[in-house]
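Let us practice reading a record.
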Amino acid sequence: MLDERKTAILSAVVNEYIATAQPVGSQHIANAPGIGVSSATVRNEMAVLEQEGYLTQPHTSAGRIPTDKGYRYFVDHLATPGRIDAVSQQRIGQFFAAAHGRLEEMLHQTSDLLAQLTRSASVVLGPPPESSPVRSVQLVRLSATHATVVVVLANGSVENALIDVDESVSDATLAAAGSHLAGGLGGRTLAHLDDVTPTGDATVDALCRSAIEALREAVAAEPVFVGGTSTVAQAFDAVEVVRQVLHTLEQQFVVVSLVRDIVDRGMSVAIGVEHGVEPLSACSVVVAPVVVDGEHLGSVGVLGPTRMNYPLALATVDAVSDRLGQRLGEG
């Protein structure tokens, strides 16, 4: 643990650098509220903080900036809980009060809302499709040789997948296969795809098998929505860093794994290299699980430069995850 003076100086440096993105000098910190010592004393203490790995000096004549270790100490020991202003609270409340329709659209709009509130890239992971009961199933012919299986889930999500059909298959047979799937899956989750029993009709059973396999592939990917990528790109000066961040955010599997790993580790904030995704080493991630009736059914988070406003990000992510969980619980 740092002593009281070093703690105050580190907190002042972090807050100033978050606000300005410019290296912080000792004279500025000496004039900050709550410091009460000379610039020479501050300079000496900042040198010690640098030796201990909490600060670094990007240039010999420049002030100092926090390291990942400095941000971690700030988040764990110094940052007071942020508060969302009344306007943002009202926006969140109005958004979820009016959120209706398809689940995918609501999750996409949630990611946009979170990005706007935090001015960071946002990530929203929706409930796995297999977690919600099936409300209805239909097989719809698209052409002589193609049909789509459409499944509406109780949480408002709609899953669909394309299947091949023989030209000789009649619309009546297609409807029979759809009815059989609806009977086998209605009220159950997509985790029970293998429990649909055969009918004994070879053509109907073949259609059902094709539909089940297509659905299995369609629901294998966890729904993920990313917003605010252009905003986070503006937070970095180095073109190569921007390129790496944007390229990584385009990779759905990496984003899902990143958020899931942080939540599974019981963390709410991963700073720099802590999250283990090297192309995002200049970024921090703030996440919160979406919980419905005690069950973890998704996550929301924001990603930005390590100098992000952690108290505000934590408060906003918590508020959005809480309201999203309530909305999902209402169906």
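A brief commentary: The chain has twelve helices and ten strands.
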